[in-house]
Design a protein that fits this description.
The chain has 159 residues and is mostly helical. It has helices at 2-19, 27-41, 48-75, 80-96, 101-118, 122-158.
Length: 159
Amino acid sequence: MGIVLVILAFLLLVVGLVGSILPVLPGPPLSYIGLLLLQWSGYPHFQPAFLWIWAGITIAVTVMDYILPSLMTKQFGGSRAASIGSFLGLLVGIFFFPPLGMILMPFLGAFIGELIHNHADGAKAFKVALGAFLAFIVGSGAKLVVCFLMIYYAVKAMF
C-alpha cells in the first residue's frame, strides 16, 4: 500500500505543477495533498511543523492567486469589465489557443473589456490589460515556485 501512496503522491505533485499554469486545476493544493500522501506512505518522515508551514504557504498562494488579478486590475485603473474580460480571455486561451493563449488571451480579454467599458479609450485599456497580464504572471510564477519546491522536498525526502 505504501508504494501505491508514493506513486499517487508524485502523480499529484506533478499534476499540481501543471495546475500552476492551468487555472482549471488547483496546483498548489494538489501538490500539498501529494506531500500528505507521501507522509502517510511511511517512507519519508516530514516534521509536523514542515507540513503546517507548507499548508500555510499553499493557502496563502491559492488565496493570492484569486485576489491578485482584481487587485492589480484596479491598481492599474481597471473596471469590473476588464476583470471579467481577463478571466474570459483566459478560458478562451486555455481551450482554443494553448499554450500561448493562456498568456496572451487574458491580456486581450482585459483590453477588450476595458474598451467596451470606457468606450474606446485605448491607452487606458492597454494599461489595465498590462495590469491583468502582470497579475497572471506573478500568480502563476508564485504557484510554480511553490510546486517546484514541494517536488524538491518530496524527492529529497525519498532519496
